[in-house]
Amino acid sequence: MKKIYLLFAFILFSFTACKQNQTAKQTQTTDLQTQTKPVKPAYAIVIHGGAGYIKNLSPEKEKAYREKMSEAINTGYKILENGGSAVDAVEKTINVLENSPLFNAGKGAVLNNLGQVEMDASIMDGKTLNAGAVAGVHHIKNPISAARIVMDSSKHVLLCGEGAEQYLKQFGLEMKENSYFIIEKRKKQLEKMQGKKTALLNTPSPLENIIDDHKYGTVGCVALDKEGNIAAGTSTGGLMNKKYGRIGDSPIIGAGTYASNQTCGISCTGTGEYFIRTMAAHEASELMRYKNYSLKEAQKSAIQQVEDLGGDGGMIGLDKEGTISWYFNTEGMFRGYKKAGEKEVIAFYKE
Ligand code: ASP
Question: Whose alpha carbon is nearest atom 4 of ligand 1?
Fold first, then answer.
């Protein structure tokens, strides 16, 4: 009987030992699989459509903004997903926003004190630190594409006014009469600001009635591609009732736009003069480089400097790991992003 017990105990021990060995082997294989699994490229895109006093948008307005922002985000996202460059993604995404009257860029841009649309834009490639910009242009349908041409096809960084338009015509850029950019809603806003009686010549289109009266409506985009390259761009009509000839921060590299693969990409919106005086976009980048700030800490500090001088606005950005961050000192900011394999996020108000 004792022998039978001993035999049974031996069989049980052997079975347990064998099972443990199997589990250990399985764990080892799983660990190995985790180690050799290819790392997913962290491509991502983030956009803004201006910061300001956005409060309780009607469902109709919210829907219109959400749809257009989603279209813009996905335009750039698809380029990145297919292995395209961050610079391409930034340009094409901004084109979508420039072509929509909902934002203060391209069609629907704000008016200067003479009632004209005068546009600024810039783009920067974080890999090469190459950059291009246009300022004070009146006829270029898509100023961000003009900035791209200045970056790629000239030895200059910033071209302005008539000289810019004359030079850029040869590249086949689409030119428009200034009236193409001007919408009734903006005329009304300008007349109100200048203390004039509002006399609309035409009835605003249903889409124009959607446009929110929030303060800034500049558009911007930052992207990270599969190669790990960062690009940033910004396009605007500037500030409503600005002095004819006034240039804001958006076409100034380092102020409204900056990108470096070493740190991050940034696009700003707000009272441009303060972003120029603090070199806000570059400041955020360099706080990361020299002080090891996280992107959020760097943005917070840069916007604080703008605020200390009396300005307001915000900035979006992403770093080399694909971390997305924004910061603003206004009530809200039209903004959104999409990361590789994730759902898009669109937001208007403060979190
Ligand atoms: N920053 C732009 C400018 O001052 C305005 C804006 O963000 O809407 O020209």
Answer: 272
Residue-wise pLDDT tens digits, 176-206: 999 999 999 999 989 988 887 554 445 556 6
218 Cα nearest atom in ligand 1: 8
Q: CB of 63 within 8 A of CB of 210? A: no
Catalytic: which of 16, 34, 75, 218?
A: 218
Q: How do residues 87-97 score in pLDDT, each as one tens digit?
A: 999 999 999 99
Q: What is the pTM of this model?
A: 0.86
Q: Would the CB of 159 count as within 6 Å of ligand 1?
A: no
